[in-house]
Amino acid sequence: MRVLAISAFVAAGKRVSVTVADTGAGIGMEHMTHLFEPFFTTKPQGTGLGLAICRRIIDAHGGSIAVTPGRAHGSMFQIELPALAG
Questions:
Q1: How many angstroms separate the CA atoms of 86 and 79, rounded?
Q2: SS3 of residue 57 by DSSP
Q3: CA-angle at 33, arms to 58 and 31, nearest 5°
Q4: Residues paired with 6 in a beta bridge
Q5: For 34-56, what is each residue's pLDDT tens digit?
Q6: Global pTM?
Q7: What domains sit in the chain, N to C, each tagged with a CATH number?
């Protein structure tokens, strides 16, 4: 059974941190450095645009996105964005 876990919290420096983790097959270490490049894909029918577009949007809003291998399986994506002043 695959599990998708999403968590969010306000981090230090008034930033919002979002983590998306799954228990799938994961991403090979050889692909980690290319993952956010336009047109890079590991899927036979993939376009390689999804993560590149995500990074551009997050960067444009003053944030960052990173990926690491999951603890046991899968992958973890960490997104940080500036929090809106309330």
A1: 20
A2: helix
A3: 110
A4: 20
A5: 999 999 888 888 898 999 999 99
A6: 0.83
A7: 4-82 (3.30.565.10)
